[in-house]
Each structure stands twice: as structure tokens, then as C-alpha cells.
Sequence to fold (519 residues):
Amino acid sequence: MLGFTSHLVGSLKPLTKWLFFVLVLCVALSAFTSNRGSVFFDGRVYFTDGDCYARMTRVRLLQEHPLTPIRHHDFENYPEGTHPHTTAPLDYLIAGLAAILSPFFGNSLELAGAWVSPLLGLATLAFLFLWGRGKPFAAATVILLAISPIVSHGFLLGRPDHQSLLLLLIAIALAAEIRVWNEGSGGMLSAAAWGAALWVSLFEPVILLGVVLVARLCTRRLRFAWRPVAFFLGILMAAFILDGFRAGAFDARFSNWAKNIGELRHGSLGLFFSWAGWMVLPAPLILLIRFFRGRDPVCFLFAVLLLFLGGLTFWHVRWGYFLVLVFALSLPCVLPFFRWRWVGWVALVGSLWPVAAAWELSLYPDDQVFRERVESVADGVALRDAAFSLRDLPRRGVIAPWWFSPAVVWWSGQPCVGGTSHQSLPGIADTAEFFLSGGDGGEILSRRDVAYVIAYEPDRVISNSALILNRAAPANPLARRLYQNRGRGLIHANRFFRVYDFSKNKTESPAGGTPPSDR
Fold:
């Protein structure tokens, strides 16, 4: 009887682990889709920001011209366009998912764009669950990644951004690195993951790989193997052939524009705690203590990565995704520092109080934040309505507030002078000049081959344009006159937007009638 009981308990352990994993996936999916009310609304799919609309425009172009490299965007900074840093892997991933969904849904492309990041998040958790099976505290890794607010933002519904694919690839690369360091195997997987990550972006992965290689050199684990190196270089060659590697010139207006970009603001300890809990602060010290005590090189690697990423995240919060990913992967090295296993779990769970507080603020916002969310959804619906009025008109340039421009391109099919990438800064500056003009903006309309203008609530447009151009607004700028006066050429108006068509009479004033003097 005792033997049967032991056998039954032993057979239930794998089932318990899989039930735990399913529970973690459910929690993670709830976190990744916490914004579903803003994405799926009024029978449409609304993406979270302008970069996502630009990504989806790329995928639509890819569907129209399969296997054709997209190295130039003519739909932003019109008519010159841009040479973006955006690469093909996520484009093809979204297009492939859309092809799978197309027999079942009429809006398969929109659904693929909405769901690709949450699915990549679940794939990341699945990989790390399988990677950590049988390792002490491996469950802590997937738990933290499932509930971290910053990681959830990386895998957010309606956010087809390259960061979601990068998080998966970097997770695989670091897991393979640990195996290489501990067992001397896994080099091919490491090479594949690092190579694919560099294909997706030549920014974050380059820096992370550089730190890893320096740490290898410091611990004398810099081994050279021909096959992984050749495989790695082969992936980079394929990336160069398909996408090329492009670098854009620095624009002097970048610093002013960057003040509008949330990912470029500075981080703080309070943010770190709300993303990963209090234990993220002593973790590097614990890892260094364990390294000097037991000479565990993986502890040294994670300590160096955490310190380096912590500094980068203080600089720009965009590094927070990778800081939390590395911290989560380091937990199987951090928590054994405590003598008893249960103490480690209590310390971790107790340290997650700021994470719970952050989710409470997100799920149950105050009145002001709630109103801002409602207004954002209303803006999206009204913008789609305004952009639809341009769909059947001849293809010409559009001037709209720069942060709305990618959505206008997506909904209308018309190219925009503005955009949300830093490569679009010349066009962004021209839209700011236009809306801030004391005259009729005719020179910009002519030079940019613009036929259509979308005006929005003027206070925000004026203040943002003044910030980008670093000058005070005139008394009655064009942004205000277009929105309030509803001059000639008005073809559509709703609660938030006014749409003008100036293609028929190029000498006509956008504001209607005779524009006021610039003096």
C-alpha cells in the first residue's frame, strides 16, 4: 500500500507542474490583454501607438509584394520618405499569422497584428518553463515575467512592436548562454538566437551581446567554435541581403521631439520596484557574493548584466524590458542565497508588493487617468472616421498631427508628411511649422505636395509644435484657425477632427478667405 501511494504521488508531480504552468499562462494572458477594451472596440482593431500602425502598413505592403525587401517608406516624411531601421522578421511573422487566420476571419491582418505580441509572450514563458524544469526556483522566473507590468507592456495586445520578438530571442539567447557556460554545449542555439536578435534590431542586442562577450572574457569562458560562429555570421549575411543595415543622420530637433516619447524618459528606483519588486536592488550584490564564494560564473554574468542594464534604464526606460527579463532569469541564482528554500520564496513574494500596487493603479485608475483612457479611445474612433473620408480620393500628401500620422496612413491609404519614427523628423518639423504658422502654410503645402489637411484640437497641437520648434506660438496660429473657423475646403468634420481638401484650388487659403499677416 505504501509503495502504491508513493507511486501515485510521484505520478502526480508532473501533472501538478503542468497545471501550475497553465495557471501561469492564464495569469500572463490576462496581463498581456488587460487593454483589450481599448484594442477591440466598435467592431474594429485599434493599435496602441503610431509605430504599431507603421508596422502594420509595412505588413500590408509585404502582403501585396511578397519577398520584396521594404527598405524605404514613402508613406511617412512624404514625399521624400524615410530609410527606416525596421526589419523583416516581425513583418513576416505577422503576415504568416494573418495567413493562418484568413480562412476564419475577414480582418485576419488586423487580428494578427493585435495578437502577435501576446502570443510571443506566451511562447517566451513556454520556452523558459521547459528550460527550467527540474531547476530550483525556476518557477520564480516565469511567475515574475507573467506579472511584471513592463514585460506585460512588451507583450501587450494591439502592440505589434519588435520588442516582443526581441524579448523572446534574448530570453533564448541568455538561456543558451547559461548552458554554454555551465556545460559547454548549446552554442548553436546561442548563435541562432543572437543572430536572429541582431537581425530584428542592431541596437539593444548588440550592446547585450557585447556585455556577454566581455563577461565571457573576464571569466575565461570565451571559447571559439567554428560552427556556431559560421551559423551566426550566416544569419547576419541573410539579414544584410534582405534588409540591409541602415544608419540615419542625427537631427538637431531630436532632443525636443524625444520629450514626447515615453520610452526615452529617465528611469527611477520607484519604477524598478513597480516592475520587478524590491529584490531587484540587492540582487547584483547577492550574485557577486555567490560568485566570490563559489566561483559560479553565471552569477558573475547576471551581476554584470543587471548593473549595466540598471544604469541604462536610469538613462532610458526602454531598457526596462531587458532589465526585468535578466532579473527574472537570475532568480534561480539569487534565491539559493537564502539558507532555507521557503525563506527565499517568502522574500521574493514579499518583495513583489510594489508590483501589486502598480497593477492596482493600472486596473483601477483614478478619475483623471480613466478620463484620459476614454478620450484616447474616442480619439481613435474619430480619427478612423476622419481618415476614411480620404480613402477614395487621389493619392496625395496629408498633413496631420505627427503622432496621428501612421494611423491616418493605415486607415486612409494616403501618405503623410509626419510620422512617429525619428527618421521622420524633417516631416514632423514641417507639420509643426504648418500648424504654428501665422499665415496660410502654402509654401509647405506646395513643397510637400500636400492636398489634404487633418486638424485636431488646437491646444495640444500648438503646444507640441512649439516644443519641437523651440519657439513661442503666434497669437492665432493656423492650427487654431483650421479647427475653429472651418474654412473653405472642409470635406469632413466630427467631434475632434476637421478634414480639408485643398487639391482643387492650390491658391486657396487653408484657413478660408484671406489669411492674416505674419506680422
Q: What stands out?
A: The chain has two domains: 2-32+85-363, 368-501. The CA atoms of residues 73 and 82 lie 5 Å apart.
